[in-house]
Amino acid sequence: MTKLTKEEMSPLHSLEDWDEDVLKRYPEAGKPAKEKDAFRNYDSPEIDGVREFYRLNHKYQTYDNVLAKKANFLKFDKKEMPWWTAMEYLNTLIDDSDPDLQLDQLQHLLQTAEAIRADGHPDWFVLTGFIHDLGKVLCLFGEPQWNVVGDSYPVGCKFSDKIVYPEFFADNPDKYDERYNSQYGVYSHHCGLDNIHMSWGHDEYLYHLTKNYLPEPALYMIRYHSFYSQHREHAYDHLLNAHDHEMFKWVDKFNPYDLYSKSPVTPVVSELKPYYEDLIAKYLPATVKL
Ligand SMILES: [Fe+2]
Ligand SMILES: [Fe+2]
């Protein structure tokens, strides 16, 4: 790929503009997207940034992009550090946004996890809430925003119209490649998500960092939490197998905590740290290799 400009690296003013846009699209838990016009019929720099973000995401998330990112990042040869330190490292991700208006990464993760804990869920579920966006460290390794966040979806088969801004796939070369543009593409009927390449981003990356340590429902939550065209719209039922459907009950359970737990009351990190350090020690190895 030719060298990207700053605008192409970071079309979003802030990474959170994507989360805010998802929230507008899905204001109610468990329901499909609102009609586009109902929430995009006004002009704002945030919406323009999100639109440009998706234009680039849909143009560049090809089958080959995913294989290349996996070949690079699944070597885990970038950095090694304790998990808590990695969470603090993620928090060095600062962008152009107004710090008074936006929660930092650690605050979003603690609010998600604390909401899960308050509802009495198992401790591995709480830990999942706490780390679910750690994969965003990809931004600190020089990845453009559209290779880190955004709705995720399968590559190697037809892009669904249920994915946000489907018209932008017109710029994606896979749309014109006969290997990849049929309903099943390189896959087969009910072949199961484990056999499918998802668009590259923080979800897939963290799945690979945690897959040997967390219970399977946690891994589904991590790996598919941005797969809105499936967990809200059921656009890829033809690829999921029965086990995926069973496990997606957990993805559905997780999603409201991710989307609706934001609160202006910021958690006190120092008070919560001992509890989360213990949780990390219970399930995860001493260090994470990024
Ligand atoms: Fe996320
Ligand atoms: Fe999140």
Commentary on this structure:
- The structure is a single chain.
- By secondary structure, the chain is mostly helical.
- It has one domain (6-289).
- The protein has 13 helices and two strands.
- It has helices at 6-9, 16-25, 36-40, 45-60, 63-73, 83-90, 105-118, 123-131, 202-210, 216-224, 228-231, 242-260, 269-283; strands spanning 80-82, 287-289.
- The protein has a two-stranded antiparallel ribbon with strand order 1-2.
- Helix 7 (105-118) packs across helix 12 (242-260), helix 9 runs antiparallel to helix 10 and helix 10 crosses helix 12 (242-260).
- The two termini are 23 Å apart.
- The mean pLDDT is 94.
- The structure holds fe (ii) ion (2 copies).
- One fe (ii) ion (FE2) binds at residues 108, 132-133, 258.
- It holds the Pfam family MIOX.
- Its cofactor is Fe cation.
- Its main location: cytoplasm.
Please describe the structure with a list of short key phrases separated by commas or semicolons.
single chain, about 290 residues, mainly alpha, two-stranded antiparallel ribbon, 2 strands, about 45% helix, globular, binds fe (ii) ion, Inositol oxygenase, iron ion binding, oxidoreductase
